[in-house]
Specification:
Shape: globular
Number of domains: 2
CATH class of the largest domain: Alpha Beta
Helix content: 40-55%
Number of strands: 19
CATH superfamily of the largest domain: Periplasmic binding protein-like II
Number of helices: 17
Radius of gyration: 23 Å
Strand content: 15-25%
Length: about 400
């Protein structure tokens, strides 16, 4: 079945250039999954595209609300019943390829996609050396929101915490695996996984069991011991905060709470044992994928539609509609995007971060366990030997997930 499907996909790729000749005469329905807040936007854009040429006559779309956090799991569970085009977070790409839920980006689109979008996002859309998805955003990262009547200088973590403590305000940050890398990568640690072209994890590159890792863990323990610190990075659940580490998705909520005191900045520096580091972390993106099709005509239409839905004009329109930050380089340089406080802070922070690659699901569970130990006070007052032992165990587990 797998070999037969690959043959069909090759035929589908050639069908793009033949679409005009066949006039899209077969027609049918294309199912699209996107986040709830862009369902109407996506439906309008897709219908406009299909109506723009007789080549697509007879094709319709069904747009359903399935967010990036759920789409990958649903696709892997049942590829056949899944969407034909769907949005997903870049860290899911390896398992989607492995499950046969993604087809490579159509050859005539690939070069254009790679030159038009930010390099980090393009790399995130690849497994091995093959491009498997269309970049849609470059706004999946975190930075600092703060109340400028409380926090006088957002450049240092120590200053932010001191200001929050003095004002009786909270400082929110999630210390889970996604956010905690701000400290580990900030001290110079590495944690990445290699994958083969089938999406299998082949190696883990990690050096948390080191002096660099020790400095990061000490900083995490020190921050968690502040009376102003509260575990979490969801503005909708946060109260009485002077500062919060969060992403662009919560910009509206935070702006409403802080009003005229709303401010954004890159993440601050932190100091451990007399040495100062810049907080780092992951940057990420949303991608749009196309499912393999046995109907070559349908595959050609899906590829053309996915390419359009991630084009410069649609990325800008999506930003205007819901505030999603573009991955397209020209769209990123538009006056409207560059004037957005949250996206500007994120762009500044991206200079200190690394693109989030593919990580095994077990890594996130392991990182949550480390977070719970830190927040629960297990390492408060611990000596270096105890902290190093924890890091050695963490590193060994991470390495075990690559076969």
């Amino acid at each position: 079945m797998k070999k037969r499907l690959l043959s069909v996909l090759l035929a589908g790729a050639m069908a793009v250039s033949m679409l005009t000749g066949c006039g899209g005469k077969k027609g049918g329905e294309i199912k699209i999954w996107v986040a709830d807040n862009v369902v109407d936007f996506t439906k309008t854009q897709a219908e406009q595209f299909l109506a723009s040429s007789d080549d697509y006559k007879g094709w319709t779309v069904l747009v359903e609300a399935v967010g990036e956090g759920d789409a990958a799991g649903n696709m892997i569970t049942d590829v056949t019943a899944g969407a034909d085009i769907y949005g997903f977070a870049q860290d899911q790409i390896a398992r989607l390829v492995s499950a046969g839920a993604l087809v490579e980006v159509e050859a005539s689109n690939a070069a254009k996609v790679q030159s038009a979008n930010a390099a980090g996002v393009v790399n995130a859309a690849k497994v091995g050396d093959k491009l498997y998805a269309y970049p849609m955003t470059a706004d999946n990262g975190y930075f600092l929101y703060y109340d400028k009547s409380v926090v006088k200088d957002p450049s240092t973590l120590e200053g932010i915490i001191a200001d929050c403590e003095a004002a009786g305000k909270n400082f929110y940050m999630d210390l889970g695996g996604w956010y905690a890398t701000a400290f580990f990568f900030g001290t110079g640690c590495t944690l990445t996984y290699d994958t083969d072209n089938d999406g299998n994890f082949t190696a883990c590159n990690i050096d948390y069991d080191s002096d660099k890792g020790l400095a990061a863990l000490k900083a995490l323990v020190q921050m968690a011991s502040s009376p102003s610190f509260v575990q979490g990075s969801s503005a909708g659940d946060a109260v009485n905060y002077g500062a919060i580490v969060d992403g662009t998705w919560d910009a509206g909520t935070i702006k409403e709470v802080l009003g005229d005191n709303y401010a954004c900045a890159k993440l601050p520096t932190f100091t451990v044992d007399g040495q100062t580091y810049q907080m780092s972390g992951f940057n990420g993106c949303k991608l749009l994928g196309v499912k393999p099709q046995e109907d070559a005509d349908k595959l050609a239409v899906c590829d053309a539609l996915a390419d359009y839905l991630t084009s410069e004009s649609v990325q800008l329109a999506r930003y205007e509609a819901v505030g999603w930050g573009p991955s397209n380089i020209a769209a990123q340089n538009s006056d409207a995007v560059k004037a957005d406080p949250a996206l500007s802070a994120l762009a500044e922070q991206f200079a200190y971060t690394i693109p989030q690659g593919n990580y095994p699901g077990d890594y996130w569970t392991l990182a949550e366990s480390l977070r719970d130990s830190i927040v629960g006070g297990e390492y408060k007052g611990a000596d270096d030997a105890t902290l190093k032992a924890a890091l050695a165990s963490f590193q060994s587990s991470c390495q075990s997930y690559a076969k």
